[in-house]
Amino acid sequence: MTARVAIPLTIGVTSHRNLVANEIESIRHAVRDFLARMRHEFPHMPLVVVSALAEGGDQLVAEEALAAGARLIAPLPLAREQYAEDFTNAAARARFNALCDAAQVIELPRVAEGNTGTTAPTGHERDRHYAQAGVYVSDHCHILLAIWDGKPSALLGGTAQIVRYRLSGERPALAERRRASPRSLLGDANERLAYHIVCSRDQADGAPASPLHPLQAHWRSGDRKLPGDGAIPGDFRAMLARAGEFNADADTRSATIATHPGLADNPGPGTDAIDRLFRAADWLAIHFQRRVLLAMRGLYTVAALMAIAFTAYDNLPAQDDMIYVFLLLFALGGFLVVVANRRGWHRKYLDYRALAEGLRVQWYWWRIGLPLGGDAAFARDNFLQNQDADLGWVRDAMRSAELDCAMRDGADAEREIAVVAREWVGDAQHGGQLDYYRRKAAQRARTHRFTEAIDAASLCVGIGISIVLAAFAARLSADAKNDLVVVMAIFSIVAGVRAAYAYKKADKELIKQYRHMQRIFGAARKALDRATEAAEQREVLRLLGEAALAEQAEWALMHRQRPLEHNRL
């Protein structure tokens, strides 16, 4: 049986360790209710909980997630054996090990460069690992579930810092600060949603920050705070609805999608998820592209026939019935646009193509051993930032796929560089994106020449008929003149509609874009051939991925500005 393709609803966890004993059961009930609400509101998105499994709320949420049938992913700040040292008694350690056994564990890399990892970090260095884990959880979830007293804190990696990072993009003081955080200070608050359950702490002055009270719940996004018992904020709901819609589309066509070519010949654990997601996104993008093209061709054919019908009505005697043909065609064009827009063909085509191309870059980066953090994460998390906020679901889908890759041991990166270069870049004769852009540029150029030929033919016919009308004006009957005018109008209509259709498809702009990308990939091919070290080749492929993501964003923006519109008829 083919595994289901589904973008999950990912819930991250950050919490205090020292919860007050008499609040724990109430917090547990609140968490259980929250998970049930999310499953009910987004039935097409399977639940995934991401927790570092620290004592206190992290483990509490992990237990409730498993009880609810959710998938549990545990990004550990240290190697499992080293992290277990945090659990000071046998019962706590047994609980941690049981949760690890039930979870899919990711051991995050060491923060300190050059450290072999044989010695457990201590003090400030250990805190940096906790901060890294908190940032990782926040970066890889749709909603951060924060069990927090609401008080700020300077404790590195503490719950307060992770919540602040989530809401404002202000990154804890880790070693790497060259780039703004993926949830940048100027980023969209729609991608920084947190669900805050207020708690007390078992310590002096452990009451929540005033005016908060234990067990209150709030939705928080940026500076906004809404009641937690209300619905998820509308703008964020719209973004999640897009992911759920993708899952539903993939479910409906799962049998056909399973036969579609993927990224990997033999995907393994972890990579099979990103491969299945790419197959679905790529197949669905092609599917909806065909529907959009069919609707466009139908719409512009209707437009041409409308113009011809009205010309006949206006210029030919005894053709009064043509006005009814005109109105019928207008209604048919409206029906086409309404069906296409209600079913979201154009939007789905662009969104799913963006997802497929983003996954392609992400897959190749992972294969060559490029860490999906730092510069790579910066490029990915800024993908489509200038588009509609709804497209945040594409970035979140990429983050979910990254979690699956992180749970698999990396490929032989040194060997994979040459393989990736061949598969991804290729050359002008043997596949890869270089050959793709060469073919697409040539195809669009032929289409553009055909459009220009129709325009030239229309011009010649128009000039010829004008000369005939001028030369034989006194000899031609009124009916003959009308017939010639109608013929001239038909040629002009065909040329005008063809030009409008070519504009809607962005033929001229795409010729330039495809040729630009052909040059980019050609330059990358030459740079890879010149490079003598793996690090240099890896950097070329990183830059190439950024260029590909930027090109995809430009392509999406260009086409989003050209939707199907009935009022243009």
Strand and helix layout:
Elements: E1 9-15, H1 21-41, E2 47-50, H2 57-67, E3 71-76, H3 80-83, H4 90-102, E4 104-107, H5 123-139, E5 143-148, H6 159-168, E6 193-198, E7 217-221, E8 224-227, H7 234-252, H8 254-257, H9 271-315, H10 322-342, H11 345-367, H12 375-381, H13 392-406, H14 413-425, H15 432-471, H16 478-505, H17 507-530, H18 534-560
Parallel strand pairs: 1-2, 1-5, 2-3, 3-4, 5-6
Antiparallel strand pairs: 6-7, 7-8
Helix pairs in contact: 1-2, 2-4, 5-6, 7-13, 9-10, 9-11, 9-13, 9-16, 11-13, 11-18, 14-15, 15-16, 15-17, 17-18
Describe the structure.
The protein is of the alpha/beta class and 569 residues long. It has two domains: 9-234, Rossmann fold (3-Layer(aba) Sandwich); 271-369 and 410-568, no CATH class. Helix content is 60%, strand content 7%. The protein has helices spanning 21-41, 57-67, 80-83, 90-102, 123-139, 159-168, 234-252, 254-257, 271-315, 322-342, 345-367, 375-381, 392-406, 413-425, 432-471, 478-505, 507-530, 534-560; strands at residues 9-15, 47-50, 71-76, 104-107, 143-148, 193-198, 217-221, 224-227. Strands 4-3-2-1-5-6-7-8 form an eight-stranded mixed beta sheet, with helices on both faces. A hairpin with a 2-residue loop joins strand 7 and strand 8. Helix 9 (271-315) packs antiparallel against helix 16 (478-505), helix 11 runs parallel beside helix 13 (392-406) and helix 15 (432-471) runs antiparallel to helix 17 (507-530). The chain is elongated and about 110 Å long. The two termini are 47 Å apart.
Key phrases:
single chain, 569 residues, alpha/beta, Rossmann fold, 2 domains, 8-stranded mixed beta sheet, 18 helices, 7% strand, elongated
